[in-house]
């Protein structure tokens, strides 16, 4: 996939930062991600021209999560979208990821790459098929909605993470791919 993306169009996304939810240094990259270093996958999900978003008690994150042993990142994306958004994944195109370097003395889970791993980020075409399954050990989703890009970005820009810019980038990837 050859994309013409100018990182200066996304100033909050392409800077190194400390995660506020773990002992991680995060750097967003658009290069090919080594599959053996993928520990998590998140999907900027779209239904046609709208963006499917999930709301937790503390905000609007990107749907996704940690892969389980014996899962591929594609299988993890499918499972996470069904659990968190009640969505069926139709198509997934990875377009980048957060390189994560931990300062912890062991991996988050024993099967995950350590001390460097990636949260792969994909553009996903989805179909909303039901309610989130909300497993007891997962985040409890309060709402799933479909929003035009501008409205989605306003909702997603309220936290400290550059999730609004991530969706703007996903929209540009969608435009360039013609999907």
Structural account:
The protein has one domain: Alpha-Beta Complex (Nucleoside Triphosphate Pyrophosphohydrolase), CATH 3.90.79. 20% of the residues lie in helices and 35% in strands. The chain has 3 helices and 8 strands; from the N terminus they run E-E-E-E-E-H-E-E-E-H-H. It has helices at 73-85, 149-156, 163-177; strands spanning 17-18, 24-29, 38-47, 50-55, 63-66, 87-102, 116-128, 143-147. A hairpin with a 2-residue loop joins strand 3 (38-47) and strand 4 (50-55). Helix 2 packs antiparallel against helix 3. The radius of gyration is 15 Å and the shape is globular. The relative contact order is 0.24. The model has no long low-confidence stretch (mean pLDDT 94).
Keywords:
Nucleoside Triphosphate Pyrophosphohydrolase; 179 residues; globular; 3 helices; single chain; alpha+beta; eight-stranded mixed sheet
Which structural category do the helix and sheet elements fall into? alpha+beta
What overall geometry do the principal axes of the alpha carbons give?
A: globular
β content, as a range? 25-35%
CATH class: Alpha Beta
N-C termini distance: 13 Å
Largest sheet: 8 strands, mixed
Mean pLDDT across all residues, rounded? Answer: 94
Number of DSSP helical runs: 3
Number of strands: 8
Q: What series of H and E elements makes up the topology?
A: EEEEEHEEEHH
Q: What is the CATH topology assignment?
A: Nucleoside Triphosphate Pyrophosphohydrolase
Question: Architecture, CATH level 2?
Answer: Alpha-Beta Complex
How would you name the CATH homologous superfamily?
Answer: Nucleoside Triphosphate Pyrophosphohydrolase
Number of domains: 1
> Which percent range fits the helix content?
10-25%
Low-confidence stretches: none
Rounded to an integer in angstroms, the radius of gyration calculated over CA atoms is: 15 Å
């Amino acid at each position: 996939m050859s994309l013409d993306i100018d990182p200066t169009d996304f100033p909050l996304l392409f800077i190194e930062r400390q995660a506020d939810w773990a002992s991680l240094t995060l750097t967003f990259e658009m290069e090919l991600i080594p599959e053996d270093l993928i520990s998590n996958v998140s999907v900027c999900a779209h239904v046609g021209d709208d963006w499917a978003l999930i709301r937790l008690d503390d905000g609007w994150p990107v749907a996704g999560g940690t892969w389980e042993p014996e899962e591929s990142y594609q299988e993890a994306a499918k499972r996470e979208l069904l659990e968190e958004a009640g969505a069926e994944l139709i198509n997934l195109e990875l377009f980048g990821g957060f390189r994560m370097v931990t300062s912890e003395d062991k991996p988050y889970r024993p099967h995950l790459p350590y001390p460097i791993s990636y949260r792969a980020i994909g553009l996903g075409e989805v179909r909303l098929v039901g309610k989130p399954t909300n497993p007891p050990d997962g985040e409890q989703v309060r709402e799933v909605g479909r929003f035009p890009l501008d409205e989605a970005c306003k909702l997603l820009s309220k936290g400290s993470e550059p999730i609004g810019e991530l969706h703007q980038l996903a929209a540009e990837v969608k435009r360039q791919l013609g999907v």
